[in-house]
Amino acid sequence: MEEWWFTVFANGSAGIDTLFLIAGLHLSHQLWRKSDGQNIMINAPKFLLKWYSRFTLSHILVISAVLCLPILGNGPIWDDVVTPTLRNCRERWWLNIFAINNFWASDTTCLPHTWLLSCLFHMVLISPILLFILSRSTTVGIFVNLMIIMGSSVAIAMVTLMNDLPPAPAFYFLSFVNIKIIWQKLFIQAYDHIAPFCLGILLGFFISRNAKVTLKKTTVLIGWVSAIACNLTVMCGLYGYRHGEQMEMSLSAIYASVHRLVWALGISWMVFACTYGYGGEMLCVL
Q1: Residue limits of the Acyltransferase domain (predicted)?
Q2: What is the pLDDT of residue 83?
């Protein structure tokens, strides 16, 4: 905890938003390419059905494997470890099938780690609508996405203030707040990660419509410096509170509400720069 670089690992939960950003980017680019920028809603049902079938099939296979655990082994602590998981899957398997398991407490759901898939599916459901609006009016589409991003930040700030939560999940052990509350309210809900997803939608939309972008060296330099600064700020911004000092609730709410978006902005520039040939040596790394 004393070394500054430790916060890079302690506050690494923001890294999950890279996935939501890339998911939004991929969905936007895929839908736009298949539709040639026209009639996006016509392809939407087929796209959503295909996505849901893959989502559901993988859940069914894994849940089936879990239900077979009783005949696969035994041991002195077998029941202590397996029984709770088995009970949850027998009683609440349907939460996973309908992609709503992230609305329930994780210790009562089957395969709690699949909250990510359910959360992502909620965003996939609205992605055709967002792209349809963008295809009709770029200005209105950008405005709608920005409103969703702003609404997400406001929601996170309000949840943080109302529940006296710390600024990030990694620092729950420095507070008296139960980790289950932080996990349930500030990590596994769609509103926690919708901002990076919408940013990915906008980035994918831009890339799909612009095959080439010319930038000055100064602009590229500023972009890279800003991106690195954004990511380092998110990673190391809580270093001063490593000994358990209480952050003011207003600051805690601000950090909680924007740090995922700031992280996604940094990653967005990296994707943008590398896509248009401004990645330099980073292209070899990424």
Answers
A1: 10-274
A2: 87
